[in-house]
Amino acid sequence: MPRQRIAAALLTLGLLGACGPSAQQQxxxxxxxxxxxxxxxxxxxxxxxLRALEQGxxxxxxxxxxxxxxxxxxxxxAGIGGGGVCLAYDxxxxxxxxxxxxxxxxxxxxxxxxxxxxxxxxxVHARFGRLRWTQVVQPGEELARxxxxxxxxxxxxxxxxxxxxxxxxxxxxxxxxxxPGEGQRIEQPELADLLALIRARGAGDLYxxxxxxxxxxxxxxxxxxxxxxxxxxxxxxxxxSTRADLxxxxxxxxxxxxxxxxxxxxxxxxxxxxxxxxxxxxEERAHLMAEAIVRAFGDRAAGAELSAFRSATLMNGFDxxxxxxxxxxxxxxxxxxxxxxxDGSTSLVAVDRVGNAIACSLTMNAPFGVGRxxxxxxxxxxxxxxxxxxGWLRTGSDYLTPALLTNTQTGELVVAMAANxxxxxxxxxxxxxxxxxxxAQPLPVSLAxxxxxxxxxxxxxxxxxxxxxxxxAGLTRRGHVVEEGRQFxxxxxxxxxxxxxxxxxxxxxxSDRRGFGLATGGTGP
Length: 525
What we know:
The protein is an alpha+beta fold. It has 2 domains: 2-13 and 35-86 and 99-237 and 364-386, no CATH class; 240-340 and 403-524, Glutamine Phosphoribosylpyrophosphate, subunit 1, domain 1 (4-Layer Sandwich), CATH 3.60.20. It has 16 helices and 20 strands. The protein has helices at residues 2-13, 43-54, 59-73, 117-128, 133-146, 152-165, 189-201, 210-219, 228-233, 260-272, 276-279, 282-301, 308-313, 425-437, 443-448, 469-477, and strands spanning 33-40, 83-90, 95-100, 104-105, 113-114, 148-149, 185-186, 237-240, 242-246, 249-253, 345-352, 357-363, 401-407, 413-420, 452-455, 460-463, 482-484, 490-495, 508-511, 518-524. The strands form 5 sheets. Strands 8-3-2-12-11-1-20 form a 7-stranded antiparallel sheet, with helices on one face. A 6-stranded antiparallel sheet has the order 9-10-13-14-18-19. Strand 4 (104-105) and strand 5 (113-114) form a beta hairpin. Helix 10 (260-272) crosses helix 14 (425-437). The longest helix has 20 residues, at 282-301. The N and C termini lie far apart (47 Å).
């Protein structure tokens, strides 16, 4: 039995009950200094990342620690069975790199995806981490083994999922079929055992060891066809970021396969080219953003390759005074996203004291993955999903949008952010970047301001509640059909207007009011 196999391995390693006092308690007091910062969609996970920074860790250590905590405290969108995409910025080398570890289809097909999260996090840690692997995995293991009080983020996500699907079989998250209330104690010993193996034996154990064999056995029930060979072959892919410039500012995104990065790069180029955004007023900016969104989605849906020149030419015929729309409208109706709930994705960002940053968007390919807990593992597998055409419009996994903004002359990081939440993610990321660096708007204000989502089919501009009446009227005057939607994208962001290294104490950390996350960091002992 997989559960017995894991328990036997743990006993052999002497790991059961081995979690003692936290490493944080063993840190000697030191001079108050800038630690860095972490933003995540679940508070206890963000605190795990902060703990890594307090231990002297890097932004990479903080992100990895946050991820493993999220697998326990926010499995609706992050888990051992899922994956994601990150952007990493090396402040010393002035290099921005992207890593893709999205869940992939098994060679034999089937309903379960090959998990990428653990190997992706291991790759990030190996390249940019400073703490020991055991230090960044342990906080998540402790939360699972000794229990945690359900946060509002977790309680609300379970409640929304059960209300939508009627599925109350989420293992220890729904004891007796009941939804957990905020503050309810949750223990996950099976997941703790799995994390203990990963902590002690490394990420490779899920891709060729006891943990991997347990995953294959557990997911073969119910249509999974993931093999040990699929796990062994899985490798994250590092590439250079895509960069679109505005003066000395470089807007970095992930090149793919998720479409969020290319969409964000296209929209950024279209709205900043010829200083369109700079010279526009509030009404004109909403119209400009709507026109750019429609053009970007139409071009991407047609399978066109990303290029700065092509993005700029897509705005040919744009008129500040009237709606012109896309000459290549998207063939898929995006309107269901106007009132969509969680899509099983989440975002987190971290910066450290030496000028490095990591921005990640994670996914389970659907809320709580396949919606069935692999009981012996204590984790949810992710469903298999195609990425890129023809499947990119179907799932929130295809819109993950980590992004970085840097000063290309000084090498300073200015903005680190990651967005999720369907097709609104890329426009939301661009909007926050523009408000922060061009309008010099405080980050909490930027995140709280209502956003828009424009679609070619139907030809409408959806706006969030609270949108300025003048902006709505301006869109209508220009020929747009305006309709109120739910909420558009969720963004985790850190803004260092004066530069992360030059003015670290001026950095602002903020979580999106559309969720129940936590932004934490700054100075510490």
